[in-house]
Design brief:
globular; alpha/beta; single chain; 7-stranded parallel beta sheet; about 15% strand
Length: about 250
């Protein structure tokens, strides 16, 4: 651990997509660093599995919620903020990935499914948290997990890449609206060894783990390679940074 043990003592963060992959790792890390975590994901069983690993399980709150049902999600989030007395920020990590060709008959339906979670769901959570009635604390920092595929989109991931590109453009604009009370940035990792990367490859017949190892000079990343940047951007050490997208490319783009 490169951060002091009590870095986030007295802080609280909301994490979407906290049941696996990068969302789970950052939730557990922030909890270990002293923060209270409200972990949100669809799968209650997987959330409980993460809670069982938490250093401070009493400060790891699990809430099962399907972010694809996004229409009233901002109001739901607002009430959640009131219930917990406000937060110090959030990591918007909920997302799915589907490999699909534009020639696929249900391509647009797949696009809607992708954007409902990757974009609209996370956006509604953010909308609820920056509402003045949410009492998010001054200096709160929000991180949206995007993807390097925005810069270098591989075959079959047009929809996934598009949903992440929308997130990056959105944070750059929203940053100008919520300053100086709050900050928001995005991170764009390359290939990260997560269940989502493996599942996408299995469904498409391509091994994205092997592809990432071949395409990244530093090899495929692990969630532990991504979490430190998220922790920095949530901390007061990054208080002069907002509206930026940070690429973690493992040397891929040079």
């Amino acid at each position: 651990m490169i951060f002091k043990d009590d870095l986030f003592k007295g802080k609280s963060f909301l994490i979407t997509g906290a049941s696996s992959g990068m969302g789970a790792h950052v939730a557990l890390t922030l909890n270990e660093l002293g923060a209270k975590i409200v972990a949100i994901a669809r799968n209650e069983k997987k959330l409980q599995e993460q809670k069982n690993q938490a250093k401070n399980p009493e400060n790891f709150i699990c809430i099962s919620k399907d972010l694809s049902d996004y229409e009233k999600l901002d109001s739901w989030t607002l009430e959640l903020c009131k219930e917990f007395g406000g937060f110090d920020g959030a990591v918007l990590g909920a997302g799915i990935s589907l490999a699909s060709s534009i020639r696929t008959p249900n391509y647009i339906q797949q696009a809607q499914k992708m954007f409902n979670i990757n974009y609209f769901g996370n956006l509604q959570v953010l909308k609820g948290m920056v509402d003045r009635r949410a009492h998010s604390r001054i200096g709160s920092s929000f991180i949206w997990i995007a993807s390097i595929t925005v810069i270098n989109p591989p075959k079959g991931l047009s929809l996934y890449s598009g949903s992440k590109a929308a997130a990056i453009a959105t944070i750059k604009s929203i940053a100008t609206e919520i300053i100086p009370q709050f900050r928001i940035n995005s991170i764009s990792p390359g290939g990260v060894d997560t269940p989502m990367l493996s599942d996408t490859g299995r469904r498409s017949g391509r091994n994205y783990i092997d592809i990432s190892n071949a395409n990244h000079p530093l090899g495929v990343a692990k969630p532990k390679d991504i979490t430190p940047l998220i922790c920095f951007l949530l901390s007061e050490g990054s208080s002069w940074i907002t509206g930026q997208d940070f690429m973690l490319d493992g040397g891929k783009l040079g």
